[in-house]
Design goal:
The structure is a single chain. By secondary structure, the protein is an alpha+beta fold. It folds into two domains: 69 residues, Glutaredoxin; 100 residues, Up-down Bundle (Glutathione S-transferase Yfyf (Class Pi), Chain A, domain 2), CATH 1.20.1050. The chain has eight helices and four strands. The protein is globular, with a radius of gyration of 16 Å.
């Protein structure tokens, strides 16, 4: 594969999953910054969904994380990896929703929704079997999980998921220094 273009943001956990997988696979990506919050015309030209990431490939555009990862890692996957990936997406979706809620004026933040989203993250983290039962790094599910947990740390540093999951915290500490994670770290180092 030659160099591909990825539309997205360096602060998106969904974009980071694709970036980490590409690095692990030796695929060259060029990240072009777009914001889904601004209805960026470059984004909408390739994705009516209006979400990031969008991986531009020969013959079209892949308008989400899962389709981009399928393109980069087309081999069949084990159910355990798919389970972990699904849980990771649940973490990322809840964490992004919490971030968007935090950008609202205080009077427009909905406490019951915040509590529900926080509970979702903790419920998912508690449900994950440890050690994470997938092939060794870099399975798509483990990459997504690492990016999702790093995003929680990045955007909600006061909402610590580690106390109830020390084994998962130890696993996370072991993957954060990996070159692909270090090269794609969120601003501030996670």
């Amino acid at each position: 594969m030659s160099s591909l273009v990825l539309l997205g943001s360096e602060t998106s956990p969904f974009v980071r999953v694709v970036r980490v997988l590409a690095l692990e696979r030796g695929v060259s990506l060029t990240l072009e910054a777009v914001s889904p919050l601004d209805d960026d015309p470059r984004l909408l030209a390739h994705s009516p969904v209006g979400r990031i990431p969008v991986l531009l490939v020969e013959g079209g555009a892949l308008p989400d994380t899962r389709s981009a990862c399928r393109h980069l890692a087309p081999e069949p996957r084990q159910p355990a990896d798919l389970f972990v990936e699904g849980c990771a997406h649940g973490i990322m979706e809840a964490a992004v929703a919490l971030r968007l809620m935090s950008l609202r004026p205080a009077g427009e933040q909905h406490a019951p929704t915040i509590a529900r989203l926080e509970a979702r993250i903790h419920r998912i983290v508690s449900a994950l079997p440890v050690p994470v039962p997938v092939p060794a790094w870099p399975a798509v599910g483990t990459i997504a999980l690492a990016c999702g947990l790093a995003y929680v740390d990045f955007r909600q540093p006061t909402r610590d998921w580690r106390p109830g999951s020390p084994a998962l915290a130890a696993w996370m500490a072991s993957v954060l220094p990996m070159p692909s994670m270090a090269q794609t770290a969120f601003p501030g180092g996670r």
